[in-house]
């Protein structure tokens, strides 16, 4: 069984197999399953192996995860929101090397906050841009990149009530980098 199905079960959420994505509202026919397929395939006009484009990979993963917290572990909310916070608030140029460092900082932070849970915005209130919106413009590289940036930004703003919380995690990483 796939991870996301397990997580949904654990979170007591019944996955719908048809219609729009029940979490983000993407205009799908097979709900979350199709939403995840679009996400997993990526948006292929962008060459994500080119290091100048890797930022889009991070933005896609963060935006999608934070739109679908019901199919992830709770730790993920902290991680992906902290990363967007570092990218948007502190203009940090994200690289693959920074992800394990952020994980370390988050693990340290969580030692005394095991039960801290970032309550997500309600379902369907996590931004108007979704996988299917990005897919619509995905045959044009520049438009696709622009839409992904807007997507991540919009989702980040929807989680605004937790920006203060993840700032503490972000500052730990920034301090480590000095
Ligand atoms: Zn979705």
Describe the 3D structure:
By secondary structure, the chain is mainly alpha-helical. The chain has one domain. It is built from eight helices and no strands. α3 (54-67) packs across α4 (74-88) and α3 (54-67) crosses α7. The protein is globular and about 45 Å long. The protein starts with a helix and ends with a helix. 33% of the residues are buried. Bound molecules: zinc ion (ZN).
| Biggest beta sheet summary | none
**Bound ligands:** zinc ion
What is the domain total for the residues? 1
Distance from first to last alpha carbon? 43 Å
List strands and helices in order, with pairings.
Blueprint (H helix, E strand, L loop, with lengths): L2 H8 L20 H11 L12 H14 L6 H15 L9 H13 L20 H6 L4 H18 L4 H15 L1
Helix pairs in contact: 3-4, 3-7, 4-5, 4-8, 5-8
The structure holds zinc ion.
């Amino acid at each position: 069984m796939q991870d996301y199905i397990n997580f949904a079960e654990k979170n007591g959420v019944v996955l719908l197999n048809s219609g729009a994505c029940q979490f983000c509202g993407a205009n799908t026919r097979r709900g979350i399953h199709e939403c995840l397929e679009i996400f997993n395939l990526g948006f292929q006009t962008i060459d994500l192996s080119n290091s100048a484009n890797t930022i889009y990979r991070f933005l896609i993963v963060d935006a999608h995860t934070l739109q679908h917290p019901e199919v992830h572990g709770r730790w993920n909310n902290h991680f992906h929101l902290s990363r967007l916070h570092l990218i948007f608030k502190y203009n940090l140029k994200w690289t693959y090397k920074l992800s394990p460092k952020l994980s370390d900082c988050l693990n340290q932070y969580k030692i005394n906050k095991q039960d801290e849970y970032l309550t997500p915005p309600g379902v369907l209130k996590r931004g108007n841009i979704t996988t299917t919106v990005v897919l619509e413009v995905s045959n044009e590289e520049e438009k696709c990149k622009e839409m992904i940036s807007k997507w991540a930004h919009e989702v980040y703003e929807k989680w605004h009530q937790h920006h203060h919380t993840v700032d503490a995690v972000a500052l730990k990483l920034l301090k480590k980098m000095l």
